[in-house]
Protein 1
Amino acid sequence: LCGGLAPQRELLIEHLHRLQDALGGLTRDDLAALAERLRLSQAEVYEVATFYHHFRVLDDGATPPRATVRVCTSLPCQMAGAETLLEQVRQALADDADVAVEAVPCIGQCHRAPAACVGQRQVAPADAAQLVALVRAGDTGPRALPATGAPARAEDYAQFERLLRGELRPIDVLRELEASGLRGLGGAGFPAWRKWVTVAGQPTPRHGVVNIDEGEVGTFKDWHVLAHDPRPALEGMLIAAAVVGLDHLWLYVRDEYHDVRALLAQELDALRARLADWQRRYPAAFGPRSAGGAEGGGALLPPGGPTIELRRGAGAYVCGEESALIESLEGKRGLPRLRPPITAVRGVYGRPTLAHNVETLWWLPTLLRDGGAAWAAGGVRGRSGWRRYSVSGRVRRPGVYRLPAGSTLNELIAAAGGMADGHRLYAFLPGGASGGILPAALADVPLDFDTLADYGAFIGSMAVVVLSEADRARDAALSLLRFFAHESCGQCTPCRAGTTQAVALAQAPMWDRERLSDLSHVMREASICGLGQAAPNPIDSVLRYFPHEVAP
Ligand code: SF4
């Protein structure tokens, strides 16, 4: 079953997927055999298999399900009736003991809520009859995406070819990047050019990681970008490899995006063929690298180009955090690392690593074509460039909207066709589960990095969920707290125990302000990574802006 996969530890998760795809679940005998093949202890294989939500380790004597239906019950889907859908599917399949029906966190289809998966098929919006029909037909493969099989275009890889021809030098790219003000669009918002310079100044070999593990509740922009137009992101990745001097590249795709992974596999096959062609046409660009990255001279790319691997996540939100993602790439549990050292200095296999969200890379060809300053001028209210906002909830047309950086909620709602019929704005999440909950009165605040700190919120990956007067902020907060409790990796106590405590306390009709504030403080101050530090944001938001919902 694992033929074609090298028996290496770093491929443990790929092996587990291979086995589970074929067998429907993982028995202890399977895990023991895998441990032997990979020369790992059984404990190591077991701990990885049980860490990720998408692996099903079977009890002795249990049989794997014939099919699995996963119904998303995160906030946007919950608002669209996910609980009812889940119940309907459970009832409809009650006699099918060999079909597993599960409630799962966000699957990245919030614009078409309620969403569900049948095997590897995402269905959105989903209804019970449709899901049951797919199960009965065994129709569980990924769907084809709009960009699948798209013909080559003149603009594909045009900026990268300018680099290969020497029309554009690495230093020019860095200058344009700095002028653009492009920031990491996965949530952290760190200036891209600074990260590039840091990694380029590290010793070789250096690696690159493309983060396609968006799992923040309400975020689906990376799926949207790749589903419709993946090539600029791949071109951006090659440009980064040439400028920063990266030898090995990994694309890590969340497991819910089987359709995107299939599309990328196709695109990467074509790209590898193009790399061979480019090496024939521009031999001077391929060869031994010198230290010093962009300014060190020598060839841009190693002979044959950088190695490129496509990897598959396994249902762990925390792996969107770059150090957890790197642990996962190395075949381990996705436990965030203590920092420093930062990823730019010690990343994959301890080597300097440039890790970027996929949308950040997507913008590179555009800003090199138009110039960094022109791209920066796209922003409004003193912000630089453009943003893709995922908009879901109570609007007429949920979806991904490309608007100037610094746009407001009112502008986003207008772009999304206005509020849904019969709904009036009450509150909104500016940055998914982690970014807090703000009241309607702040609908004119610019939504961008650094603009929301005074309001106790942040924009993160720009996942905007709109709530109306039909919703309560405390219900949204409880939903988000449950999400964090489910996704905590368990490595540190403030987060592991704190998220569970928070769920219990937030269910009380009247909130214990003192205890919740104390808990929030401890989690924020003492958690290792951003998940635990941001998990109390919904609590703080409700206490600050919506006290009438939780106090007499
Ligand atoms: Fe894991 Fe939570 Fe600690 Fe992050 S904060 S390391 S997710 S337990």
Note: The longest helix spans residues 258-281.
Protein 2
Amino acid sequence: MKIAITGASGFIGKKLCDFFLRDNHTPVALSRSIIASPEGLISTLEGTDIVINLAGASISKRWTTKYKQEIMDSRVLTTRRLVTALNQMAAPPSLCISVSAVGIYPDSGVHGESSPMRGTGFLTHVCESWEQEARMLKPGIRLVITRFGVVLGKEGGAAPLMLAPFRFFVGSIIGNGRQGLPWIHIDDLVNAMQWLIDHKQVTGVVNFVSPQLTNNEQFSKTAAKVMHRPCWFRIPAFVFKIMLGEGHTMVTSGQQVVSDVLFHSGFKFRYPKLEDAIRSIIS
Ligand code: NDP
């Protein structure tokens, strides 16, 4: 199969490309320059079977007003251009998987795919706008919106940053530690993508999170245990407010999210337990 991917050069995109290549599929990277050209985008999409929309500027930089616009535009405009191209095609790919994030949900409660509850901050607003663009896809193309938790892997994403302080004996709990930290191991994310491709009846939202509900304190204590390090410190939330500005919410707040779709389908997680996921990353 030919699988077109926006954001193919990123942490998750590279992992997906490697996986599809190993499985004898042909990944096609939709670079920024291809996305920017309406004709180029349509001609690159011709003959593809699936499109996966991952593109988005990193949220880990300081959220200045200008950078917040980039976080938003890199997702919303890319998705709009992609959906416009797909809607114009006579023979479009049969499946479009468009990414979003668990930041769409509020910090209180436990949320499955059918939860109508929404958060209030900037990231919720980004996710809602991102998903809204994807939903403009014409009927006839199967649309799946994957809401990722924090993706844990060796080669990128948040895990190397989250685990580094533990290596240097300064791992800590952030704030009161009760903020949710939904996560998924990158190997499970890649397998779940293949699962979505295979299960043609699945449409709509699918939360990509492991079955183990986790909060920040549990994450820190598990990391400390696996890495044989102490977890003595608790860093007050205001320190992150000073350091990160509005972006402090990335670490001082978080959601509790489950994936009713993956759990009830019998999807087998290779890393259902955080301890094993962290062990695989530090090994
Ligand atoms: P990376 O930061 O590693 O990669 C981002 C990708 O998006 C790169 O290929 C980059 O291309 C591309 N990109 C950035 N800005 C633009 C733009 N303006 N136009 C087109 N492409 C752009 O991210 P990840 O691989 O970790 O994440 C992929 C997606 O998954 C992101 O949208 C992210 O928000 C979402 N997600 C990730 C989570 C995680 O834990 N990693 C959790 C929840 C959601 P280039 O090389 O040209 O810069």
Note: The CA atoms of residues 76 and 129 lie 6 Å apart.
